[in-house]
Amino acid sequence: MVIHTNQLGFTVEFIQKYKDGEQESIRVKHFVRDFKEWDEQLYPYTIIRENLNLELKFGCENTRATLSMDGLDILKDRKVEYDEFNNAYIHPGALTLFEHGSEINYYPYIPGIYCLTVTIEGENYYSFIKVISNRLSDEQLNTMRNEVENQLKGLAYDVVRKQNIAQELNIDLTLFQHFKVLDFYYDDLTMIFMDLSNKVRFTLKRDYALQSIEKPSHVDAVSIQYQLKHPESTTYLKTRKNLVNYDLPENRLLKRIVKKWSLITLDFLQQVEYNINQYQKGEDLFSSYVSRNRRKSLLTQLENYRQTAFRLKAMLDRFQLNYWFKEVSDITSSSIPDKMHMDVRYNKLLKIHRYITTSERDVALHPAWKSHWKRTDQLYEIWCFFKVIDYFKSKNYQFTNAPKWFFGEMDETIDNLFVIPTIPAGANFELEKGNMQFKVFYDETVPKTQQETENAKPIYTTGDNNKPDIRIDLFIQGVYIGSIILDSKYRKRDVLMDSKNQLISYADHIRSPFIYNKKRWERIRPVHRVIVLYPDKYNTYGIDYLNDKSINLVPLTPQSTKAHFEQMLEDLINEMILDAEEAGVILNRN
To answer: Beta 53-60 vs 46-49: how paired, if at all?
Structure first.
């Protein structure tokens, strides 16, 4: 049964405060005593908007009454108390939930459904609050969330495949991943195999054989029964012998695993040696998109992989020389023996093998990624960053090196081999095609002095604004030819230019002593364009070119075409190449 607040003796309302000073009071009108009684078709949610200054007012004559709501535990406010179960609540009064520009870490109520509970004298009353997006529809927001997660995982797969071996090399990428797992666990495998060589699992098997009666014998009921049946046997006695049996189900599976790993190592070693031999013969293994320095680096890695593969193969070969290994049969079974789980050595090997043989490699997201779903503006910023990466992927640019931040510190567990952390400030991807190189930075701080620059980080700023959301640095054969700045603004188009001083600063105040390798660089503006990305829920606007300020206002929205954005990037890059050629930096287009 839904109860109106007029009948309950308390009131709950939200006060939304707008930039122009206006306020809107939104009262929570309906409550239920049981979650199951709520019917959103009959009683709508209380609707509030995201990213607005927000205050909660709870009125009740009973001062012992409490109100709890998701997010209160984040607030650093003395009015927030905690019960014995560490649940946050407040007593009747007013509480600020969100305030722009405040030093207090307010909980950003992002689009979604939140439960609000009022408790009076042990009786609970529930209602539901729906926070809606200002700039995106529910469908667009969900699409953006899903795309960020899926694109992140997809990007991780691509980087995993390319992190040490070029795609152009004749090496099976699945085999390469299997090899990397074995290499990662080499120390563990060494210890386990040493222990198993001396203390492998076995059972004692009882057997009987005829032997001379003059030799010491173990006589039991079976021996006596044999003599009764064969009284003529006066010189031989059937005696019991205890034999060690290594042919156990867990050892059969162990043998199968080791042989499988030996084949993986051998196949990988053969493929690596093939590539090295082809190079030594002078045959070109690489496409024209792979630079000479990158080729040398790849071949050095191939030599390292060959040595590692030899080491792995030698370890596996030694283990198979154990005297008991040949006594284990090759009988296979579809079930996993219980002892594989009970013995920690066998269990570790089984887990590694399962990880290797999993058909689909899963890339997990770090739990801290959930924090990005708390802020739609942050989510939009990350989504825009990946749209830039997607553009370069679509144009066949290759990752030159896997960024270390992308995989973080790998934990010593199978489950965390490929766990993706949150994107730290200053993270970047390096890509190349032919003799063009790109560095795409996320939230990178631009230094404020020339002394802090170097060829790999070629710019500094004389202005106050020095942390754009996204930055693209372009190089031709290692020569810096300029940058594109992108800033994501989760705002209405009409207020984008409220930040014009920041945007103009990016265009006018950034300098580089490395631009075109020119000695007289002071008058050259390295930032070719500042692009402001914003969501356009209804696809109303096109690109606005503010040429007098070198600024483009570009709508970029989930569930909408990205063609205009991608074409603009392509045009800007081509313009920068032409400018570089006029300055004497020539792109080899062959």
So the answer is: unpaired
